[in-house]
Design goal:
about 20% strand; 9 helices; Peroxisomal Thiolase, Chain A, domain 1; 11-stranded mixed β-sheet; single chain; globular; alpha/beta; about 375 residues; two-stranded antiparallel ribbon
């Protein structure tokens, strides 16, 4: 089977904005176990609405900044044709609009320009659905490289849609905590460049990790609730399709809702039992960053790639009184850990309303060079 690798990643998050170092800032911030300086402490959509908000330049810079970081990290040639672009977003913008709340009809980053990129819209699983589509394009031979990117800017409409189904919390998000009470919306952007391994190596790129497999499916007993059986099936299929012997860490969707977190951790516990695992590490970034909605899969991908490269697993900020789950080690708030066993295979989950379910398996591959981040030494 054609090997697909990650060669570039980009991020704009509460840990860092548009300075071109969004990924290391995010990874180091989570590893230190500290909330970002601008951690979401309230629903952004409840703030007084400034009529000039949608005309501000800052949100418009997020998507190009994440894409630029990914392309520069992948050493993509400035004088070459750009990779195919897939946007994870809510809806394409009207032709005459460049409002950052829409997926743009054109994206320009340095010398590269994309006209009418395809928008993949599957609620909060959109980013991983886009990765799944990118994988299919590359493995089928249609393209050698696909850039997946997305941005999340909070709006009153997004907030109210979650409030209607009683998913919005009243305190900062506490994924998997017994006192969790709902989602806190975050803002930011992400990008990931995926390439056919052979062509990436031929052009001198350094693969960061391999995409073992991805699963994207529609199903479930309710349009607004996670389904344990579907979540379990997605994770199991990702492991099977990748031909992986097992899994060493799960980066959970875990938004902090009462029902969703319980359903997901039950599925992970079932997976651990099936695989004979006693302490499968599980954590989520959403306690630190909030929920980036359509773009929420990007921090998970970044954490997964970092985990297989340096073996360090971030904890869940806000998690102090974890749920009880057999076979699972819910990593409570604190500095990152280095588990006893090597981290070779990581699952990333993303689920969305409407029965959207996705899981990606990221793994270490022979073409990936070991990496040790500077400025942080994990305990143990």
């Amino acid at each position: 089977m054609t090997a697909v690798v990650f060669t570039g990643l980009g991020a704009v998050s509460a840990y860092g904005t548009v300075d071109g170092r969004g990924v290391p800032r995010l990874v180091h911030g989570l590893a230190e176990g500290r909330p970002p300086a601008f951690a979401p402490a309230e629903d952004p959509a409840t703030r007084p609405i400034d009529p000039t908000l949608l005309d501000e330049e800052e949100p418009r810079r997020w998507l190009p900044a994440a894409i630029n970081e990914a392309l520069r990290g992948a050493r993509w040639p400035e004088d070459g044709a750009p990779p195919v672009l897939l946007l994870a977003g809510q809806a394409p913008a009207p032709a005459a609009s460049d409002n950052p709340l829409y997926a743009p009809t054109a994206v320009e980053v340095g010398p590269h320009r994309w006209e009418h990129p395809l928008v993949i819209s599957h609620a909060c699983a959109s980013a991983l659905f886009a990765v799944h589509f990118a994988e299919r394009l590359i493995r089928s031979g249609a393209h050698d490289a696909v850039l997946v990117a997305g941005v999340s800017v909070c709006t009153p409409c997004a907030s109210e849609s979650l409030r209607v189904v009683k998913a919005i919390g009243t305190v900062p998000s506490r994924p998997f905590d017994r006192e969790r009470d709902g989602i806190l919306i975050g803002e930011g952007a992400g990008a990931a460049l995926l390439e056919r391994a052979s062509t990436a190596l031929a052009r001198g790129a350094v693969p960061l990790a391999e995409l073992g497999a991805s699963v994207a499916e529609i199903g479930g007993a309710s349009s607004a609730a996670s389904d344990t059986a579907i979540v379990f099936d997605a994770m199991t299929r990702a492991i099977r399709d990748a031909g992986a012997p097992g899994v060493d860490y799960v980066h959970a969707h875990a938004t902090g809702t009462v029902q969703g977190d319980a359903a997901e951790i039950e599925a992970v516990s079932r997976l651990a039992a099936e695989r004979g695992l006693s302490e499968l590490p599980v954590s989520s970034h959403k306690g630190a960053l909030g929920h980036l909605l359509h773009a929420s899969g990007f921090p998970g991908l970044i954490v997964a790639v970092s985990a297989v490269r340096d073996g360090v697993l971030p904890t869940t900020i806000g998690l102090r009184r974890p749920l009880v789950a057999d076979g699972v080690d819910l990593l409570v708030e604190g500095p990152a850990i280095r588990p006893r066993r090597r981290v070779d295979h990581v699952l990333v989950n993303a689920f969305g309303f409407g029965g959207n379910n996705a899981c990606v398996l990221v793994r270490r591959s022979p073409s990936v060079r070991p990496h040790r981040p500077s400025g942080f030494t994990p305990p143990g």
